[in-house]
């Protein structure tokens, strides 16, 4: 399967190079940057990525912006964050894959990496998100702190290989701060759900 890649960035100079290197086989990379003030954009351009700019409001809108604004070469799009990296096995499976006609997207597992080691336990594995989809069919809606695909479950398959997520790459303090914010978003979602039930 030939794919184009979409990456979300904001001040990711310590991560983006590794992500882009894992996509060196990809013939089209689009970056949606939220106004980085470090060398993120410069690094992306060195890797021949197309850089779009959009002020961040939420993950769903950032990804939808790329899907709506860019005219992609390939029908299938792989969506990543700057701290996510493809393994060689992931690339091999993707290259060999033929998408099923009735599916418009695939849930993809991720492996959380801390200090160079995969956190396989503590509820961190497996976790799935839709990160591979058809450019014309897949769109997202914001739910809690993250996005969800705007497709019915029967239109979403499961990709069999995981990518690596270096979610602690900005340090533990920033990771805790981010996840406290995420927990607050999820709590608000739960309260809204209960109030409207």
Query: Which stretches of 5+ consecutive residues score pLDDT under 50?
Result: none
Percent of residues in helical segments?
Answer: 25-40%
Q: Report the β-strand fraction as a percent range.
A: 25-35%
Shape: globular
Structural class: alpha/beta
Largest sheet: 10 strands, mixed
Q: What is the CA-based Rg, rounded?
A: 17 Å
Q: Count up the helices.
A: 5
SSE series: EHEHEHEEHEEEEEEEH
Q: Termini, distance in Å?
A: 42 Å
Please provide the count of β strands. 12
- The overall average pLDDT, rounded, is 90
General description of the model:
The chain has 197 residues and is α/β, with parallel strands linked by helices. The protein is 29% helix and 29% strand. The chain has five helices and twelve strands. Strands 1, 2, 3, 4, 5, 6, 7, 8, 11 and 12 form a ten-stranded mixed sheet that branches. It has a two-stranded antiparallel sheet with strand order 9-10. The chain is globular, with a radius of gyration of 17 Å.
In short:
The protein has 5 helices and 12 strands. It has 197 residues and is of the alpha/beta class. Strands 1, 2, 3, 4, 5, 6, 7, 8, 11 and 12 form a 10-stranded mixed β-sheet that branches. A two-stranded antiparallel sheet has the order 9-10.
Topology:
Blueprint: E1 3-9, H1 16-21, E2 29-33, H2 40-46, E3 50-53, H3 59-69, E4 76-81, E5 84-85, H4 88-96, E6 105-114, E7 117-118, E8 127-134, E9 140-143, E10 146-149, E11 156-158, E12 163-165, H5 172-196
